[in-house]
Amino acid sequence: MYAVAGATGHVGSATARHLLAEGADVRVLIRDRERVEEWIQQGAEARVVDLGDRAALRDAITGCDGFFVLLPFDLTVDDLDAYADAITTSVAGAVADSGIPHVVMLSAGGADLPDGTGPISGMHRMEQALRATGTVLTALRSGHFQEKVGDLIEAARAGVYPVFAASADVPVPMVATRDLGATAARALLSPDATSTSIDVRGPAYSELEVVVLPEDAWAPTLIDAGFRPHVAESLAELYRADQRGLLAPRGDRAVRVDTPIEVTIAGLTAA
Ligand SMILES: NC(=O)c1ccc[n+]([C@@H]2O[C@H](COP(=O)([O-])OP(=O)(O)OC[C@H]3O[C@@H](n4cnc5c(N)ncnc54)[C@H](OP(=O)(O)O)[C@@H]3O)[C@@H](O)[C@H]2O)c1
Q1: Phi, psi (degrees; rounded to nearest 5) at 176
Q2: Which of 54, 104, 106 to mutate to test the pocket of ligand 1 (most atoms within 8 A of CB)?
Q3: Which of 77, 110, 128, 242 has the highest Cβ tally under 10 A?
Q4: What spacing in Å lies between the alpha carbon of 134 and ligand 1's midpoint?
């Protein structure tokens, strides 16, 4: 039995679907009771549990062979670091309490660095905390998601496609979340013997028609767009870290995935 968190999101849902397609027993962990039935119909078990509830999470993963987990991104919080640490304390506590042998964590390029990477520093602390529990941790360090273009569709409709980088012409590797789900499912079904970090690399794309924002405008632009000041500063630090090459792959090994962005955009526009 494999427990999969974030099953209402991009990567968790893809992970659960891939596991089910392989004939594995899957228990999805979701927050919204109304989403339980759709997973039961797909052949999974479902538990309603919040990653911040250590005891409920321990109960949900105890006895499982593996656990897919992520550090959800909540851009509505006042302080991303405090939020990340609260989730990490609960998740690592539940992993330690349950004795689950293998955890696959959705992480990001740059998570080997303790700071200077904005919200990725929270994933660094979560990787460390999970390794410290004694479980075998597979950290999937992804590059940018292709689905991020969906977040910008409204802005693009208004005629602006903002790029938080020094240039819009440098191709950036981007990963389709379906490929991450497939990679996570494979990692769960064939666990490494020891903790490992895996860089997940997709095809590289430059941006389309864009407006390049000057660096000192990144945080103010995000604040104007409605983000809280700490979140805006953290995201601006993330973009600066990317410019400085801090998010480059440095894991124990790398996997190449190959879904082209045209397929992802076709899915987003169909939705
Ligand atoms: N975007 C990128 O380019 C990029 C690159 C590398 C890594 N990442 C990382 O990828 C992760 C996001 O993955 P994704 O796109 O698959 O996520 P997503 O589509 O935003 O979905 C997030 C999932 O987490 C669940 N969730 C949120 N808070 C929770 C909580 N407290 N307890 C239990 N479940 C909770 C959500 O459930 P509900 O439906 O109930 O909200 C949802 O299922 C983040 O850690 C992000 O930093 C992103």
Answers
A1: -80, 135
A2: 106
A3: 110
A4: 24
